[in-house]
Automatic annotation (TrEMBL):
One Gene Ontology cellular component: plasma membrane
Segment forming the signal sequence: none
Task performed by this protein: Required for the export of heme to the periplasm for the biogenesis of c-type cytochromes.
Record's bilayer topology term: Multi-pass membrane protein
Biological-process GO terms, alphabetical: cytochrome c biosynthetic process; cytochrome complex assembly
Pfam family, one: CcmB
The protein's name in its UniProt record: Heme exporter protein B
Transmembrane portions of the chain: 43-61, 67-92, 113-143, 149-174, 181-202, 214-237
Chief location bin: membrane
Keywords: Cell inner membrane, Cell membrane, Cytochrome c-type biogenesis, Membrane, Transmembrane, Transmembrane helix, Transport
Molecular function via GO: heme transmembrane transporter activity
Family: Belongs to the CcmB/CycW/HelB family.
Amino acid sequence: MVMGAFTLSDERTAAGRLPGLWQGFAATLARDCRLRFRRRSELANPLIFFALVVTLFPLGLAPDSTLLASIAPGLLWVSALLAVLLSLDGLFRDDFDDGTLEQLLLAPQPAGVLVLAKIVAHWLTTGLPLALISPLLAIMLSLPGHSMGVLMITLLLGSATLSLIGAIGAALTVGLRRGGVLLSLLILPLYTPVLIFGAGTVRLAIEGAVLTPWLALMGAMLALSLLAAPWAAGAALKLSLDG
């Protein structure tokens, strides 16, 4: 009877906790998305940077479609990576400056859940648009049409991983006045595997090779980042605030 009562109590506690977790996640996600869409200039900066780099880079090369197609996977992926990195410094900084971040960490929901909501909002307004406009820029680089879908898939998976990993660096440097340079030094080495597999998968798609193992590895990196990064970023935020 005691064991049965204990089990029933645990089930009721878990049932009451899950809606609270979901409500906290949804409220944080909706709030961050609203704030990002209000700051349209900041929202457009990564997209403009991405488009400018991809557009201007071919001007320094010969107008050779074969040459452009050969460098297109690496160029598109490096440009997308730098565009995501450009937007990371503001992931937590505005909330840190106005005191919202401290209140967020004092909420009854686990910090990792609320941090995950902020990362999802960042990806929805940065990584997702980058992936959606990438085929238009790829046409300028003479990327073969059959590899456009692979480019979008790799950018969707890879940009989500970049946002998750980058959140850890943004959390560690949120209390620094000039944390942008330090953020780059911390995060770029961790971004390297994502860049290699992302650009390599698109290159293999151009050659007509089997892509399943490469896409599976990118999915595995995303899954590992999803499990670990929000909690690590939440711990880093508490460390930054305590310091």
